Amino acid sequence: KEENLLQNDKLAVIGQLAAGIAHEIRNPLTSLKGFIQLMRSDKSFNEQYLKIMDNEINVVESISRELMVLAKPQPEDFKLCDIQTIFENCMTLLEGEIFQKRVKIIRKYSMEKITVLCDEQKIKQVLINLVKNALDAMEGPGNITVKISKRGNHGVISIKDEGVGIPNELIDKLGKPFFTTKSNGNGLGLMMSFKIIEEHNGKIAVKSEPGVGTVFTISIPLHD
Ligand code: ADP
C-alpha cells in the first residue's frame, strides 16, 4: 500500500525540527567543551583531541549547511525541463558509487519526453538523495529500477531498489528531521526532499517491503 508522505502538520514539524537541532548541536558542543577543559588541565598538546574536536565542528557545520536551505529559501528558478535529462545528469554524479557497489541501473523510460516546470537544481537534489538512499539500502550487488512516465496530468518518476526495506512502523518517521538509521546519516535528506516536492505541487509516496526493497514515487504536474 502506498502512503502519502506530505500530511505532516507544519507546526508539529517546526517543533520537532527545533528540538532536533537543539539536541543535535548540543552533543558536539558538549564534547568540544569537554576537550577544551581536558587540554587546559593537561597542559599537553594532544593531536588526538584535536582530531575529535575537528570532527565535532564538522558535524555542526553540516547541520547548519543543510538547514540554511530551509531558513533562507533561495529564489525559485522554475524552468521547463525534461525529467529524463535531469535524471541522467544526476547519474553522472553517482556513477562512481554505483560502479563500486556493482549496482545496475535499469531504465524504463516512456518514448516521449516528459516535460515539467521545475527548479532543476532542487529536483536534482531530490533524485540524488533518493538514489543514494537506494544504494545505501543495498548490501550487495543488485538492481535499481528507474521508471519515468506520464500518469494523468503528472510526470512520474519512481526509483525502486532491492535493499533492506523499511519496517512498517518506521514509515511515518520518514522525512522527520534527524530521523536516520545510519551511523553516518544526518536524517535531513528526506525532509529536504519532501519540502522541495511540496514546492513543486507534487507528491511523493513510498512503498516498502522489508527484505525485498523499496519504491519511492514522485509525481510533478506536467506542463501543457
Ligand atoms: P539519512 O540518509 O541521512 O539517514 P534520509 O532522510 O535521507 O537521511 O533517510 C532517513 C532514513 O530513511 C534512512 O536512515 C533510512 O533508515 C530510511 N530510508 C530512506 N530511504 C530508504 C531506502 N531506499 N531503503 C531503506 N531505508 C530507507
Task: Give a short overview.
The chain has 224 residues and is an alpha+beta fold. It has helices at residues 10-42, 47-71, 83-100, 120-137, 189-199, and strands at 3-4, 78-82, 103-109, 115-119, 142-151, 154-160, 203-209, 213-221. The chain has 5 helices and 8 strands, in the order βααβαββαββαββ.
Characterize the structure shown.
By secondary structure, the protein is an alpha+beta fold. Helices cover 47% and strands 23% of the residues. It is built from 5 helices and 8 strands. It has helices at 10-42, 47-71, 83-100, 120-137, 189-199; strands at 3-4, 78-82, 103-109, 115-119, 142-151, 154-160, 203-209, 213-221. The chain has a 6-stranded mixed sheet. Strands 2-4 form a two-stranded antiparallel ribbon. It is globular. The structure holds adenosine-5'-diphosphate (ADP). Adenosine-5'-diphosphate (ADP) binds at residues 129, 133-134, 137, 161, 163-164, 166, 174, 179-182, 185-190, 214. Residues 129, 133-134, 137, 161, 163-164, 166, 174, 179-182, 185-190, 214 line the site of adenosine-5'-diphosphate.
Write the layout of secondary structure elements.
Elements: E1 3-4, H1 10-42, H2 47-71, E2 78-82, H3 83-100, E3 103-109, E4 115-119, H4 120-137, E5 142-151, E6 154-160, H5 189-199, E7 203-209, E8 213-221
Parallel strand pairs: 3-5
Antiparallel strand pairs: 1-7, 2-4, 5-6, 6-8, 7-8
Helix pairs in contact: 1-2, 3-4, 4-5
Bound molecules: adenosine-5'-diphosphate (ADP).
Adenosine-5'-diphosphate (ADP) binds next to helix 4 and helix 5.
